[in-house]
Amino acid sequence: MxxxxxxxxxxxxxxEKSQIWDKVKRLFQKYKKKWNGPDIPIYIFPxxxxxxxxxxxxxxxxxxxxxxxxxxxxxxxxxxxxxALFIHEYHHIxxxxxxxxxxxxxxxxxxxxxxxxxxxxxxxxxGSKYLAEWSKMLSEENFxxxxxxxxxxxxxxxxxxxxxxxxxxxxxxxxxxLGYTCGYHIVRxxxxxxxxxxxxxxxxxxxxxxxxxx
Length: 214
Prior knowledge:
Structural class: mainly alpha
Distance between the termini: 46 Å
Number of helices: 8
Number of strands: 3
Strand content: 5-15%
Helix content: 40-55%
Protein name: DUF2268 domain-containing protein
Largest sheet: 3 strands, mixed
Strand order of the largest sheet: 1-3-2
Domain DUF2268: 20-209
Organism: Pseudoneobacillus rhizosphaerae
Radius of gyration: 17 Å
């Protein structure tokens, strides 16, 4: 439930002054044209303005659905940080529409590849400087360890199940954002040895990435 307070109200004013709605509109127009993406509504909120998962020490966050996008932002000075978030989240929307499968059919493998491809798009467009911190959390050795011990035998887990979310988000004793990090490692390795465009990544089957040593 929304709980306004002085801090959130100030952040809202700061976002208005920074013309964040106009900036995001321009990003939407740019990538909708570039990727021939879907026309969806975008909702922008001050980060921390709602309960649960959106109360965060982060400066930016997003939540994507096939038909809508929510962005949770602070007053970020570097506009490319906003663009990085937008690329990641709008890539999700393009892929969700491109795969044409029910959310109920998605597996842990689909989730890993979804996150990996979105962050790889950030890398390709803006460079490594604007990658999310979670993309850099594991060495190659640690990636191999966690893939073999925790993820590889659980790739068919359905999205929304407790264990799927535990592995994707890295809950309990697992490294934070484990599935995101491993997904990026998988996709980046694939990218370095295979040629495809960002638009093609919207419809690439997740099974293409299952040879983790390719």
